[in-house]
């Protein structure tokens, strides 16, 4: 297992991360959204307008997701703005999953920092 600085992972747009902390962050964000959806349903049954608190919470989680994606794009020697590729229906999501979740990062240092794995990555 890895020892991750969660604050850095979800708040900073600087640096690079490899696939392991990326997937850990994605799973944590998915879990948070599931919890928010359940809470929204429960609160919505008690008092209707409270269901929107879950929606607001989910919108707030966009910031940590984009910070996570930006660092992973940096590992590919690309700007974090590449996250916008997800707006292309279907193909954008497939490309995003491949580039961020499957493809290895650049083996050498780039303009965003050193290789997060330390050494070189096998091609």
Distance between the termini: 23 Å
**C-alpha-based Rg, rounded:** 17 Å
User: How does the major sheet shape up?
Assistant: none
| Unreliable segments of 5+ consecutive residues | none
Task: Count every helix, treating DSSP H or I runs of 4 or more residues as helices.
Answer: 5
Task: Report what the structure shows.
The two termini are 23 Å apart. By secondary structure, the chain is mainly α. It has helices spanning 6-11, 19-46, 51-60, 62-75, 91-102. The protein is built from 5 helices and no strands.
Summary of the model, kept short:
The protein is an all-alpha fold and 123 residues long.
Per-chain topology:
Elements: H1 6-11, H2 19-46, H3 51-60, H4 62-75, H5 91-102
Helix pairs in contact: 2-3, 2-4
Keywords:
single chain; 123 residues; mainly alpha; 5 helices; elongated
């Amino acid at each position: 297992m890895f020892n991750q600085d969660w604050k850095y992972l979800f708040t900073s747009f600087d640096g690079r991360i490899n696939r392991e902390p990326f997937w850990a962050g994605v799973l944590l964000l998915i879990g948070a959204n599931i919890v928010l959806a359940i809470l929204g349903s429960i609160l919505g049954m008690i008092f209707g307008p409270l269901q929107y608190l879950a929606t607001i919470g989910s919108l707030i989680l966009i910031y940590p997701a984009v910070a996570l994606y930006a660092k992973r794009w940096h590992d590919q020697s690309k700007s974090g703005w590449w996250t916008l590729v997800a707006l292309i229906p279907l193909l954008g999501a497939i490309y995003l999953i491949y580039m961020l979740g499957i493809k290895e990062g650049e083996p050498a240092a780039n303009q965003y920092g050193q290789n997060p794995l330390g050494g070189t990555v096998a091609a």
